[in-house]
Amino acid sequence: MADAWWSVLALPVMLVVAACVAAGFDALLGASAAYGPAGSVRVWGTRAATPLREARRLLGQPARRTKAADTALVRVGTALLPTAALLAGAVLPLGFTAVSDPGVGIVWFNAMEALAWAAVWLTGWGPNAALSMIGGYRFLALGLAYELPHMFALTTAGLGAGSLRVGEVVAAQEGLWFAVWMPVAFAVYLLSALAMAFWGPFDQPVGADAAQGAAAELSGVDRLVFFGGRWLLLVVAAAFSVPLFLGGGHGPLLPAWAWTVVKTAAVLALLIGVRRALPTLRLDRFMGLAWMVLLPLVLLQALAVSVVVVLR
Amino acid sequence: MTDGGVWAGVVSVVLAVLAVICAVQVFRFDSMARATYALLGSLLCVGGEVLLLGLDYLGVVIVLMMTVEMALMGVFMVMFMMNPGGLMPMTMVHNARGAAVISGLVFAGLTAGIFLVPWPVSRTRAPADPTHDLGRALMGPHMLTMMTLGLALFAAIVATVTLATARGRYGPSTPAPPHGPKGPEHPDETEAPERPHEQEAAPERPHVREDSPHAHSREDLTPSHGRQDPAHPRETGSPAHPHGREDPS
Amino acid sequence: MELRTVLLVAQPGTTEIRLAAERELRRRAWPLAPSPAAADLLILCGPPPIPTPPWLATLHTQLPPPRTLVALHTPDQAATGLLAHPVHLEGQGAEHPAQRPAQRPAEHAEDEGHSEHAAHEEHREHEGPHSEHGEHGGHEDPHSEHGGHGQHGGHGDHGNHGDHGGHAGHHMEGMAERGDDRDGLRLDRWELAYGPGLADWPAGLVLRVVMQGDVVQEAVAGSVDGVPGSGAAYWHEPWLRAARGAEVTCGEAARRRCGARLDSLGRLLAVAGWADQAARARRLRDAVLAATASRPVDPTVLGALSALTRRVRRSRTLRWLTRGLGQLPAARVRALGVSGPAMVAASEGAGDVYDRIRVWLDETDGSTALFTDTGPLPPDSAALPQHPPSAPLLAALPEMLAGAEFACARLVLASLDPDLDDAVPAPAHAHGHPHAPAPAGSGPSHG
């Protein structure tokens, strides 16, 4: 897996494009629920473009601040979210090419994604507002619930390949995808992908009940950067499941990069659909599930994989 | 020195300077949130230094662990510093003079150590995969220790969580206690509940700063004073009568 | 097409206007904003009260500029042009000299703990343009606790701070105090008021709470001031008309009841974070309410309605999330004189949030059969909703919300869905007879 200079430039562009497409898709789903099916292609197009129009609106909107806010913290928090997503994306292979393929790629991904903890907390704490603070607080609970099962899911994939290098994890799946023989780890990874982007049933940190929680006081560019960063995080989280569990660029007929794109799109569509199907999981309930069900399950999965690896 | 070496040196110096600046800010900020994240910034720079040393795994793990740990400090901020945005000024230093002397001495001692200790010169080359070697070193001869430690820690975590849930916040008995937080089941609550940060916070609180929210407090619902004495909003907790307009009689 | 994000604020007595506005926004595909910061248009249902109450002025200034406030006086105005009625609040942008000194206190703060002003200078810069708006507008209350911060400087331990932060519930205004939490830890607590600016919130309700973290320790429900007295509840209107002797068909009453339940359901689903089903419930609500005797409810709407109730009923996630939450057992129901779905839920089940949802779903399904019933609604009092059905619900809130996390508190509140317009002049004072036939709230008893 060679590093290519152009990938440094291509990565942000591709991630942003993917995020826009995903947001458009999500807007279409949301609009058909809210307004009924699209009557014409024009309506369809307008609906799909809603995220872009919203982005343009936010770009032109002067920021509004709350009283006695710690604006510096808010700025750091909002900017950290897309930054974390891009840094985590650095180890994403497109086909078999990544910006970087360090020996500890999986841990790198985990560390960068954990920056979202800080990002959401800071964004929620900074504005000096009750609901905003509650939102930031909720992310800590969410992190405590999802992070350990998530780490063990990552570890399991690394175990299967005998390496923390993403390239070698992909290489190990040339025959059989990890998703096939470590389904629990794959499922847990998908759940934690939703959670790390506080998406779907895990959107309590920006929950509707708390007026979008951590984002309640964001307007203008801050808001755009925060929610844009969240989309990037979701895309990156979905895309990372491909090298980890879905065989990366391996696949018949199509070139490797196309397989990566196809698989990423499928996972992303699944994650976006899940949000539409479920109400928000309250963390007081999910915490129990995560610690008492998911964690033991994924530990058993890791054990099973270890046994297979030792025996083979 | 190669080109890459030069760059690594430059980055190393930059990270070191940043780490020190952030560390100093920890003690200069008077907001807990800022101090915490200044500390995180400093630790991230240290993680970067470790990465530059070629210890990828350790460096990245430092970043990961420190981020999560510092984020979790937020729980304590909410518990004990729920003041607006953490901007209630509170000083991060105590016994400033003594602390300065002690830290100065420690710094001098460590610096002297750097120059005085005869550092051994490595005769072996750096391993190709230090992560692998680290794993071998930890899990080879010390397997039993690590496993015991791991289990013990994990058991401690689970036990703590279980103990914490017994009171009902994250457990099957999630529904709220019907009559408020202070049930009769805590008769001994006066028995010195933990008060970390009390010392720091207490002397600072009365001094409300200019940009603290207190100076701005609004009373947006003032007309309701007529019906609800603002001094005793808590005493209206009885379900006797709501303050609505629903009783026309 | 221009995209506006709208903060829709309903005053008491404006249900019909709110429904019209929601319909219009859906037609334009303008999203509803979850918070003032996300909005660029504030739509107020009902005429703006004069003088401008502080909550409204505050809410308005919480919108990012350029902010527009539109007041809809009648339901028709929603359709005839949302933007045709911009309002300029009195006192907007004007400085209140009396308040300035309080905002610019003396250099009193410059003592040892505060040598870090440089690090915080960005806080001060907001003070000028931001806080001079209507936040203090109309603030002439003589017994203000907050005349200046100097008077606070001295006490180390305030008993409490009364009325901080009451408005949209978006800013932390007060200073945190310590108080014992349920585990006996002395933790910071915060007094705030969640108010009329929250989305999916009962119109005109103000909830004063003491929070520790995201846990509600104490709560008191009240109503927002500065709004005109509400008329008869929109959801009870057919029964009221029938009681006055007018000719009302059972079908109309059934549709109104179905609309009321769908409105509550949509609100609860939105609070529960199930946006798609919430949107469906609201679309169907409007379709049902738009029907008349001559233009009956479309069969596709009926199909979608049963699909929705089936879907919600079958959701294991929703059941898992709401089971055991916000129990209002039968004994409390009797003691408080609660009627309506909450009473049915308590008699048929444990009386938790999920039971109340189920009662709504049952009533929604049950009312569809009566949609085309042209029989007259009997004008007797049994069909009237009982004496203010929402009053006992508001009275029940403090005990139900104490100790609940914010998310749970929102769900409990949404599942009770008190309607502050319920000040129904009830001729037959059924209060104290919860077993009287009328399943009040807003529904016909027969059926």
TrEMBL record, chain A:
Coiled coil region boundaries: none
Membrane topology, from the record: Multi-pass membrane protein
EC number: 1.6.5.9
Domain of life of the native organism: Bacteria
Protein name (database record): NADH-quinone oxidoreductase subunit H
Keywords for this protein: Membrane, NAD, Oxidoreductase, Transmembrane, Transmembrane helix
Organism: Streptomyces iconiensis
Organism taxonomic ancestry: Bacteria, Bacillati, Actinomycetota, Actinomycetes, Kitasatosporales
Subcellular location(s) per record: Cell membrane; Membrane
Pfam families in the record: NADHdh (PF00146)
Automatic annotation (TrEMBL), chain C:
Span list, region Disordered: 92-181, 424-447
Biased composition (Basic and acidic residues): 105-181
Superkingdom per UniProt: Bacteria
Biased composition range(s): Low complexity: 438-447
Protein name per the record: Uncharacterized protein
